[in-house]
Every structure is written in C-alpha cells, then in structure tokens.
Write a structure and sequence with these properties.
The chain is an alpha+beta fold. 47% of the residues lie in helices and 13% in strands. It is built from seven helices and five strands; from the N terminus they run αααβααβαβββα. Strands 3-4-5 form a three-stranded antiparallel β-sheet, covered by helices on one side. Strands 1-2 form a two-stranded parallel sheet. Strand 3 and strand 4 form a beta hairpin. The longest helix has 23 residues.
C-alpha cells in the first residue's frame, strides 16, 4: 500500500466519521435545523421573559440573548476533544443547570431556544450553517433581523474573542 493510498483512506475515514456519523449521533448537529422545543423548563421561560422585558426590538433581544449565552457557556478549540461527552447532552434542563463548557452545537441550540421562545423570532428566522474546512466540523447560526440575515457565532466569542456577527470560517 502506498503512502498516497494511506492518506486517501485516512481522509475518507475522517470525512465519513466527521460529516456523516457525527451528524447522526450528536443531538444538535443536524442538517434539517433544530426542532422547536415543546414545554420549556421554568428557568428557561423566566429568562426569556426577563430578556424580552429588557428589549425594545428584535435586534436588542438578539444582543441580550447572545450576551446571556456567552456569560454562562464557553467553547474552546482543543477542549472540544476533552469535553466530547458533553456534545451528547440533549436535555435542555440539564444543559441549563450546568453552565461552563458547551460545544458550538449546544450553544447554538440554546440561542435557538431563547429566540424562538420569544415574541421576536420564529424558527423560520434562524438557519444553521456549517464550516467544513475546520479541524472539527463547526456550526454557527444565521438569524434574520430587520429583514436581513446576520451571522451569529456564540462559540466564536470564547474561542477567538469574535463579535457576534463574525464566524469561524477556516481552521478555527
């Protein structure tokens, strides 16, 4: 077997595992978009009500949600491996009660829940985006605000100190 054959096999396995298998087993790494949750835990509903009361419009509410999620959860480049088991959490009440490390998919889901649970946004206002040229598959959101789509990267703020309208695009 040649070196080129070995490299091709490794790349093929990487693509299969990262882009196919993980999408099937990691709860919030979906191609279809997030499902709108049914009943929310009281703490989540209370947070939505609190943030809504402080916002005059959808742009202000989005900023408050971004700041709230960023104040409770963070991500990191190599921490992704160390905290790999956390990627499989799907119970929002459990996630909510354990701030700290959260993968990009989990942070995006939290933002999604806070947005669609409000009076300002619906599920149609939020799209999942994926960065493929990365060490690990990476996800961010596009949110429709004032009729225009804007990028939202909650995990990027803790990884690179990025603003909410930037996203990791290449080997984050």
């Amino acid at each position: 077997m040649t070196l080129l054959s070995i490299i091709a096999i490794v790349v093929a396995l990487y693509v299969l595992i990262v882009f196919v298998v993980l999408r099937l087993i990691v709860p919030f790494m979906t191609l279809r978009g997030f499902a709108v949750p049914g009943e929310l835990p009281d703490e989540v509903s209370s947070t939505i009500n609190n943030l809504e009361a402080r916002a005059n419009n959808e742009r202000e509410y989005l900023k408050l949600v971004y700041e709230f999620v960023g104040s409770r959860w963070h991500a990191g480049r190599m921490e992704t491996l160390w905290y790999a088991p956390l990627a499989f959490r799907k119970n929002i009440e459990d996630i909510w009660k354990h701030p700290g490390y959260a993968h990009c998919t989990t942070q995006n889901y939290l933002v999604f829940v806070l947005l669609v649970g409000s009076k300002f946004f619906s599920a149609h206002d939020i799209q999942l985006k994926t960065v493929f040229l990365n060490l690990f598959i990476h996800q961010y959101l596009e949110v429709k605000v004032g009729g225009q789509w804007t990028d939202l990267e909650p995990a990027g703020s803790s990884i690179r100190g990025m603003s909410r309208c930037d996203h990791i695009s290449f080997f984050g």
